[in-house]
Amino acid sequence: MGNESAPEDIFYVWHLPVRITHWVNVVAFFTLAITGFYIGAPSIALHGSPMLQVRIVHMLAGYVLTCSVAVRVVWAFIGDHGASWQSFFPYLKKGGWEKIRQELRFYLFLRPQPPSSSAVVNVSHFFVLLAFLFEITTGFALLSLSGSHNVAGPLFGWLFLLVSPQYVRLAHVIVMWLLLAFTVEHIYVAALLDIRERSGLLSSIVTGYMGHERHS
């Protein structure tokens, strides 16, 4: 009969809250990055572009990102195992460091076989979450400098007791660039694994499902 394709082994890996917050974070972050570029260097923008409107969009995107990150943090404690906060720390489990080492070898083209785990990916997601929290904190702190947002001042103004505004602004921009670099790496790793494993990894963040085709 030869090789005949059989139904795929389908796994439900990403619940709806994870997928929604992922894409909300993507849209909000790129909106913040684009408007942030304008706010930081308005001379590169088109002549006559309104700074006030850009700042309002930046602020609203910051609120959206804050709400989305809050939902994701809550889901890490009440959601399924794959989205649990424990998945952020695979190195705490037995053999965790060895899995991380093997994954890094694959990503650096030192090992042909795809890794059997996603330890490095999970660790990187934890640092991305920390980076988002940092951007939210520093962003609202900088917003409090305008004096027109009474909520931001009491909640985040304390940061300027520790660090001067110019250094807070610099750190805010640096972390944004790090997140942009991570985005490139994230797409590369997802595409690489999807091509090697043919598991539908890229589409899984939309559908929630991954699958490996079986042959008989």
Q: What does the largest sheet look like?
A: 2 strands, antiparallel
Major sheet: arrangement of strands? 1-2
Low-confidence stretches: 1-7
* Number of structural domains: 1
How many beta-strand elements? 2
Order of helices and strands: EHHHHHHHE
Number of helices: 7
Provide key terms for this protein:
elongated, 63% helix, mainly alpha, 216 residues, Fumarate Reductase Cytochrome B subunit, two-stranded antiparallel ribbon
Structure, explained:
The structure is a single chain. This protein has 216 residues and is mainly alpha-helical. The protein has a single domain (9-212), classed as Transmembrane di-heme cytochromes, Chain C (Fumarate Reductase Cytochrome B subunit, Up-down Bundle). It has 7 helices and 2 strands. The chain has helices spanning 16-40, 51-78, 96-107, 119-144, 152-156, 165-197, 201-207; strands spanning 9-12, 209-212. Strands 1-2 form a two-stranded antiparallel sheet.
Entry summary:
By secondary structure, the chain is mainly alpha-helical. Helix content is 63%, strand content 4%.
Ordered list of secondary-structure elements with their pairings:
Blueprint: E1 9-12, H1 16-40, H2 51-78, H3 96-107, H4 119-144, H5 152-156, H6 165-197, H7 201-207, E2 209-212
Helix pairs in contact: 1-2, 2-4, 4-6
